[in-house]
Every structure is written in C-alpha cells, then in structure tokens.
Amino acid sequence: MKIAVFSTKSYDQEYFEKYNQEYNFEFSFFETSLNFDTARLTDGFNVVCVFVNDIVDPETLRILSNNGVGLIALRCAGYNNVNIESANKYNIKVVRVPAYSPEAVAEHAIALILTLNRKTHKAYNRIREGNFSLKNLIGFNLQNKTVGVIGTGQIGATFCKLIKGFGSKIVAFDIHKNTALLDLGVEYMDINEVFKKADIISLHCPLNEHTKHIINKDSISKMKDGVMIINTSRGALIKTGDVIEGLINKKIGYLGIDVYEQEENLFFEDLSERIIEDEFILRLMSFPNVLITSHQAFFTQEAMVEITTTTLNNIKAFEKNEELINEVK
Ligand code: NAD
After folding, report:
1. What CATH superfamily classification does 2-100+300-319 receive?
2. Cα 97 to ligand 1 centre (Å)
3. Fold of the domain built from segment(s) 102-292
4. pLDDT tens-place string over residues 76-86
C-alpha cells in the first residue's frame, strides 16, 4: 500500500513511522495540505491520509480518482472537509478515527474554561515580571454555575462528566439525547433554553449545514450577559463577526476557542515572523477576555497513539478488502 500523508508535521511522521513497523506500509509524507492545486501529488498512491484542514472537494476528488486513489483515511474525527457524496460518486472510500480520545478534547475545553476564568495565563506572565498584584485577576466559582453543552456525543458526554466534578449544573441540547447522561443530572432542553440559562456554553456538535454559525447575532442575543463561550469543535459553528460584536458590546464576557473559521491559513504554523492579514483573528487576539489555542485539543500522547493505530488498521482493512468499520457513508 502506498500512502500519501498530507499536512504532515514532525509528530505525525514520528508516530506513523513508529507504529508502521507492524504494518509495513509505504509512506510518503507531504508538508503541504491537500487541495485542488496539490492533488496531482497523489499520482501512484492507493491511499491519501488527510487532516482537519485539507480540502477534499469534488474537484480534488476527481483528480484523486484519476490518479487511482481508492481510500481517503482521515486522521481525525470530523469529516466536514471531505465531500462524501462526490467520494461515493468516484467510488473512493472514506474512513476516519471516530473516537480516539474524547478525554483529550474535553479536558482541553476544561483548560480553556479554567484559564479564562482564573486567568492563570496572565498570572504566569505577571509573576515573571515581578508583579504580584491580584488586580483584575478575580474569577468565579464553577460550583452551582449552569453549563450549557451543545452536542453530547463522545466528547460532549465526557465534558459533562468532567464539569459535573466541579459541582456545576448541566443543561444540554442534542438532536439525539444521550440517555446515559440523565443519571448524571444532565437536563436536556430546547437549544434556545440552553442559550438562555447557561453561564458557560461549550460546543461539541459536528459542523454541518444545520450547525454552521449556530453561534450568531440572534443566538448571542438570547444568552446571559457576560456569558462564556467555548468552542473546541469546529470554527464555523461560530459566526466570527457576530462574536466580535458581542465581545465589543460586552454581551459575551469570555471566549475560548481552539478552532477558528479561517484556521486553515493560520493554525499549526509558526507565523511569528510574518504579517498576519486576517483581520478577524487580529481583532480576536486583541481582546483581554479571549483565549485562542491552535487546534491543539486533540494533541495528547494517548490520542496520537489511538489516531495512528486506528488509521493504520483502517488502511489495513481496506488493503485486505475487509469491512471498513470506521467508514463515513
Ligand atoms: P460524536 O459524533 O460522538 O458527537 C457529536 C454529537 O453532536 C452527537 O451526539 C450528535 O447527535 C450531536 N449533534 C449532531 N447534530 C447536532 C445539532 N444540529 N445540534 C446539536 N447536536 C448535534 O462526535 P465527537 O467525537 O463528540 O466530536 C464532536 C466534534 O468535536 C467533532 O465533530 C469534531 O468537529 C470536534 N473535534 C475537535 C477536536 C479538536 O482537536 N479541537 C478533536 C476531535 C473532534
């Protein structure tokens, strides 16, 4: 099996090379992302392995099909960047890693909440400069606060269990109720009720045509004043311009994002010596109550092992013509 890995970082290569010893696949690692312009690189490969910001649209899939690619192996859970209908048309199978470590992402959402609330990032910098003042570092207790969870699948459910440990009340919305969470005291309700009741809103649903921009001017207007919004799911769940407006007029008290609508031009790269032209991210970076991480919620040792081994097993099943248990249909 010849596999072209796109958007490769040193850690991807390291993990694939370590675990490939049992599989003996032939890997080629490309730093570039996959899109229409780079699709010609797939000539001669059976499998293409992609990540969150590779663009696998109908035009790209046409080239992949002409080049003989039979499998797209996503090394992530979300698959909004692959046009599944078009992949079906070209008879290209698509597999993903559905649940590599819900704890990794849920724990990162908690980290964003705690950091924004208790301002440990600011305290760290202050102390290094000999500033031991507590001015403006005041936070709030999570106990008895109402946390709204949108999407209670693998990650959302894990997040509920973790935040419950702080003594928070949980209100949730999902198109399918997770009955296992009812015993935990999670209360399901209409999404607008969640917006209305929650002190903190954490997004854990996938990005699709129903969820795109669910955080917008209208939904923000229903929220409590000073609400905290956390997004570790996909950037386009949030309409960035509307959130910026909400921050300016102080309706939104805190924003923690690990994902961003235009992240493909920024995230995972060291741009410290470049001029950043994206006006939205620059504006977000300027707020004292906004915390941005660069799509790192998945990035734990445990998750990397799971991502690597599941991807290798997905490819092995394809090679052996076995059932693709992680196929996206
Ligand atoms: P999952 O499929 O287990 O759960 C998603 C849940 O969202 C399901 O319960 C589903 O019913 C629900 N849902 C679907 N449409 C909805 C809607 N319109 N409104 C409310 N809920 C809806 O997925 P998961 O493993 O929990 O992952 C959730 C998302 O997290 C992924 O889609 C991915 O975008 C994101 N993610 C981010 C990172 C990261 O590093 N930041 C890593 C992994 C996953």
Report:
1. NAD(P)-binding Rossmann-like Domain (3.40.50.720)
2. 13
3. Rossmann fold (3.40.50)
4. 988 999 999 99
